[in-house]
Amino acid sequence: MSLSTSVFNQPGWYTALEQAVTQHSNSSLFQLATVDDAGDPHVRSLIHRAFLVSPSSPSLPLLVTSTDIRTPKIRHIVHANIVELTWWINATLDQFRISGMAYVFAAPEHSISTSRATLGCPGIKALEVAGIDWEAKRRELFDAVSEQMRATWCRPAPGSPLKNGYGEMNDWPARVPKLSEAKTEKEKQLAELALSNYAIIVIEPLRVDWLQMAIKPNRRTFTREGSEWKEEEVVP
């Protein structure tokens, strides 16, 4: 067993994942599993939005995705913020199974939030010590998505019944600009509504199972939790 070493002290799994996502535009989709308050599992696909790495702790990268604050996954994370995701990179034939702590950052007016106690999450703590502004980051990522995506956060809550059938969707907005680019009062109202319903989920990886299928025989490295990542060779 040996310590994982890579450029800037970043763990090998992160170097491989970040490079794959950067070089292959169709590699941003992963599946996230949560549990509800009854202990039942739920899984869905999410789009990766950003990596966050504190300059003082380059070995502790964070993963960022986004969602509608009204979705069930938010309640699940508030209930139990231990999550696991699986990320298949078809271009490189790598699979990453990442478990860790998830944190919800929503609009200030929302009461929904997760405890951000930094015990056991030194990556989150390092960013907060460095003075990260989570609300500014939320707005930055909101501005980075497409107008069509912003429009989805102006619709009724996900999972709501369509009382008048699918035709009801014809009345929903198709595009919503950034708040700073709204030209009419209606566009401003829609942008404010979308931003209010927009939340980011920040995941601090604690354990990673990295399966490299492009190498023969396949390699499977299980990196253990802790501020210093250790790699153990195991049967794939």
UniProtKB/TrEMBL annotation:
GO terms for molecular function: FMN binding. Residues 12-105 form the Pyridoxamine 5'-phosphate oxidase Alr4036 family FMN-binding domain. InterPro entries: Pyridox_Oxase_Alr4036_FMN-bd, Split_barrel_FMN-bd. Gene3D superfamilies: Electron Transport, Fmn-binding Protein, Chain A. It holds the Pfam family Pyridox_oxase_2. It comes from the Eukaryota. This is Pyridoxamine 5'-phosphate oxidase-domain-containing protein. The lineage of its organism: Eukaryota, Fungi, Dikarya, Basidiomycota, Agaricomycotina.
